[in-house]
Amino acid sequence: MKIAFVTALALSAGLSVVAQAQQGPGPAPVAAPKAGKAEIVAGIRKAIAENYVLAAKRAPLDAALAKGLKSGRYNVEDPGELTRRINEDMFAVAADKHLGLSFDPRASAEIAKRGSQDDEIENTPFFKALLRRGNHGITEMKLLPGNVRYVRYDGFGWTGDESKAAIDGAMAFLRDGDAAILDLRGNGGGSPEAVRRLTSYFVPAGTKLVTFHMRSDAPTTSTSEAVPGGQLNLPLYVLTSGRAASAAEEFVSHVARLGFGTLIGAPTAGAAYRNEFFAVPGGYLISVSVGYPELPGGGNWEGTGVAPKIAVPVDKALDRAQQEAALALAAKAQGPQKTELEWTAALYGARLTPVAPARALAGYAGRYGPRTVALENGALTWQRDGGPKSVLVPLGGDLFTLDGDPRTRVRFTGEGGVTGVTIERADGTSTPAPRG
C-alpha cells in the first residue's frame, strides 16, 4: 500500500514536473518488454480478480475486458491509446478513480522484481530518489503579506524518516506564522503515513483519524502522534480542488470533521479507496483498489468528495484565503498593524472582485517625481527609477494599491485631470509628488 504514491508519481507526474526538471535529467528510460494484447489483458484481469475491493464488480470488469479484447478494440500499437481504451472500459463498469492502467516500463520492472505486497519497495533507490527530487511532495514554501505562511503540498510522499523530516520542516516554517495556507489543489494523494504525520500537527496526540479495511486483513486504525514542538495553534486555510484526491481527501476530511482549518476552493475528487500497483506484461502497471477507509462515525468520501466551507473558483482560492486570513488577523490587531492587515484584505478583495477606477487608465499615466506610472497590457504599473516594477490594483475612485506590497497605496489627485499623487503608507506616513 505504501508504494501507491511513489509509483503514481512516475506515471502521472504527481509532483511538479518543473521541480523534478530543475534537479537535472532523470534515469535512463527502460525499454518495454514485448507482450501481446492477450497477455496484457490477462495480467489486468488476474490483478482485478485477486485483489479488487468490490467483489461484486470483479465479474463485470472481467467481462468488459474480455469483450474489449475479443472485439479487437484493444488492437492498437500506441501504449497511450491502449491505456485510454482499457481505462474507459473499466471506468464504465466501476466508476472507480483508483482503478486504472498506466504505461511505465521502469516502474513496472521495479514492482515486478519485488511484488506489490513488498512494503520495502518504498526504500528502493528508484523511489527514494523520485521523492527526494520532488522534496517528498512539498514543492513550495513562501512568506505572504501579514506573516501568512504558505506551503504547497503536491503529493503525500512517504519513504519513512526522510519524508517525515520534510513534513516537519514545512511545519516548522508554518509555526512562526500568524496564519497558514496549505495548498492541496494539485495533490493527487499518497501515503496515509504522510497524512497521519501532517494531521498530527493540528490535533492532540492520540486522536483517532481513520480505520482502513484491507481485503481480508483485520482493520487497522490510524491515530495522531506526538510531533516536534507540539500542536500548531494558528488559523489554517486549506485550498482544495477536483484534483485533490485519495490521501489528500483524507486530510481534507480531517480538517472538516475536526474543525482545525477552513476549506476554500472546490469539492475534492471523491476517490477514497486504497490502492496498490501490480506489474502487467509489456511495461504496464494496473492500479487496483484493495481497501477502503472508514472515518469515525462511519462513511468516507468515495464518489462524493469533500465540499469546501468557502466555495470559489479554484484559481481564486489563494486570493480568498489571503483575504480571509488578513481579515481574521485584523480583527485582533491594533494600530498600524491593524491598518496593514485591513489594507492587505482590501487588496485581495479587489483582486477577487475588480473595482473600476474613477478615470480611464491612460489618464493616470505619467511621471511623478522619480516614479513612473505606465499603462501596460491593460493595467497600470508603478516604478521608481532604478527599482522594480509593480502593478497598481484599483481600489475605487482614484485610489490604488501596489499588488506586491499592500502596505503602500497610491492616491491620484487633481480636479479634471490628474495633477499629482500622494503615496500613503499603513504606518500613517505619506509622501506627495506632483505630476510632470
TrEMBL record:
<dbReference type="InterPro" id="IPR029045">
    <property type="entry name" value="ClpP/crotonase-like_dom_sf"/>
</dbReference>
<dbReference type="GO" id="GO:0006508">
    <property type="term" value="P:proteolysis"/>
</dbReference>
<protein>
    <recommendedName>
        <fullName>Tail specific protease domain-containing protein</fullName>
    </recommendedName>
</protein>
<keyword id="KW-0732">Signal</keyword>
<dbReference type="GO" id="GO:0008236">
    <property type="term" value="F:serine-type peptidase activity"/>
</dbReference>
<feature type="domain" description="Tail specific protease">
    <location>
        <begin position="123"/>
        <end position="313"/>
    </location>
</feature>
<dbReference type="InterPro" id="IPR005151">
    <property type="entry name" value="Tail-specific_protease"/>
</dbReference>
<feature type="signal peptide">
    <location>
        <begin position="1"/>
        <end position="21"/>
    </location>
</feature>
<dbReference type="Pfam" id="PF03572">
    <property type="entry name" value="Peptidase_S41"/>
</dbReference>
